[in-house]
Amino acid sequence: xxxxxxxxxxxxxxxxxxxxxxxxxxxxxxxxxxxxxxxxxxxxxxxxxxxxxxxxxxxxxxxxxxxxxxxxxxxxxxxxxxxxxxxxxxxxxxxxxxxxxxxxxxxxxxxxxxxxxxxxxxxxxxxxxxxxxxxxxxxxxxxxxxxxxxxxxxxxxxxxxxxxxxxxxxxxxxxxxxxxxxxxxxxxxxxxxxxxxxxxxxxxxxxxxxxxxxxxxxxxxxxxxxxxxxxxxxxxxxxxxxxxxxxxxxxxxxxxxxxxxxxxxxxxxxxxxxxxxxxxxxxxxxxxxxxxxxxxxxxxxxxxxxxxxxxxxxxxxxxxxxxxxxxxxxxxxxxxxxxxxxxxxxxxxxxxxxxxxxxxxxxxxxxxxxxxxxxxxxxxxxxxxxxxxxxxxxxxxxxxxxxxxxxxxxxxxxxxxxxxxxxxxxxxxxxxxxxxx
Length: 437
Ligand code: FHN
Hints:
The protein contains eleven helices and 16 strands. The chain is an alpha/beta fold. It folds into two domains: about 25-355, Glycosidases (TIM Barrel, Alpha-Beta Barrel); about 365-435, Golgi alpha-mannosidase II (Immunoglobulin-like).
């Protein structure tokens, strides 16, 4: 055997023990799954919720790791967690008023605490908190009633379970766990918890995994877990925030704090944009979990433009809030979400059900498309005329989307020139609808 062949076989052997081997199985999404993907791409806007016992400390969802709080100390927190103001109806109504079509909530974050009544661990909201209610059940019931789909965020990384071993880059020896453990046992536990979530909470739109980056080269037994999920709920979508190209068995690709193909935050340095439906997630302030001192709230323009840009990239926008320990959402966040909803009441047609338009994103903005209509979203352009590249289709008519005022246009070898009445310019988004011939 030639050395190069031996080298590739050894590489394959190495990769197969790390779970990164080229897929041996070929995933065929079911018709139900493909239907959910279509729904997902049409839905465009979702609410991300990071909520756990960590909210009590008001210092974000990483507080256990950041402050190096050992498990036996952290375990005291659930006894202070009593979110008596939690109101699933209010949360769902808030999401609906914002124009959101789905909610993705943390079932378990990296601290390992289950926000539902798990039967395989009493480290959960029902057994360990004075509140004693299964908030995921309450939310799932309300979402179903109101036609909002529900995803569960689930952390594969676990700072609490002793079998999460060898440990990764976070949750070190300060947790107080023994220097031993059985990762397969942990993954069995994770699969059982996922089975609970996919069996007892009705139709779930998907599982949003996070945490593989903690042990990049570990064998996460993805095939087993993904097959289990697809068997329990064939319509449920699987996505994983591993910051890489999608793996076999995944149904959508997510981008953290960046639009597809960008890497301003450093999370996406290994990320390759694939062909699956896409979603970009971002925080409404600067934190995922509730952070008392965070006042970097994003304003109306920034939030709406993020949604529009995501749509221009063919991606959904998953916007996060971190509810307070009493179960309420910060009033300033409720107000911002309402502003987005008011905007979508007018401009929803240019976002929902669209796909990324014929032009890639430009400095001036993006395009979205539905059928024969292309929506030009001018996010950053205040001159009275603009020339955009032509994509080979002729234009029948052009109008300001909001009030149908006709827009003069000229098509020639330089592209399409649009003349925008000054009075119609909008500092958030001037939307021009182009009807194609
Ligand atoms: O560590 C998490 C973080 O807490 C948060 O959940 C975000 C959401 O995308 N994901 C991880 C960081 O990549």
